[in-house]
Specification:
Elements: H1 4-14, E1 21-26, E2 33-39, H2 45-50, E3 58-63, E4 68-73, H3 80-96, E5 100-106, H4 109-116
Parallel strand pairs: 4-5
Antiparallel strand pairs: 1-2, 1-3, 3-4
Length: about 120
């Protein structure tokens, strides 16, 4: 279930262009997805990579200027249980947010850069 903060932040990213990047995480009880980081309207692939932990999964929404991409960050250093929980909830998370034109699983900073570079 997405928090109302995410729905609001997503609208501000998509419509108002206040953000270029939202980093989302599951709450401690894995019941709710919450916003944990955001950037202003001019994020670049390096900003996205810098906002991601090397040992935990995250959902990432990025406004590339042309489209909104959703990423599931699942680095090699993340615990298997963490990866499984995030992967199982990724379709639901993406489905609840309108206007996402691309959803991808990424494991490395290079994959993030490749997906976000026109």
């Amino acid at each position: 279930m997405l928090s109302s903060d995410i729905i609001s932040a997503h609208q501000r990213l998509k419509l108002a262009k206040e953000y270029a990047l939202l980093v989302l995480a599951l709450s401690q009880d894995n019941d709710t997805t919450v916003v944990i980081d955001s950037t202003g309207p001019s994020a670049v692939p390096a900003d996205v990579s810098a906002a991601l932990p090397i040992d935990e999964c995250r959902y990432v929404l990025v406004d590339t200027g042309v489209k909104i991409a959703a990423l599931l960050w699942s680095p090699g250093g993340a615990p298997v249980r963490n990866k499984m929980i995030y992967a199982s909830r990724s379709a639901l998370t993406a489905a609840e947010l309108e206007g996402i034109s691309r959803f991808a699983f990424v494991e490395t900073s290079q994959e993030v850069a490749d997906l976000l570079t026109p």
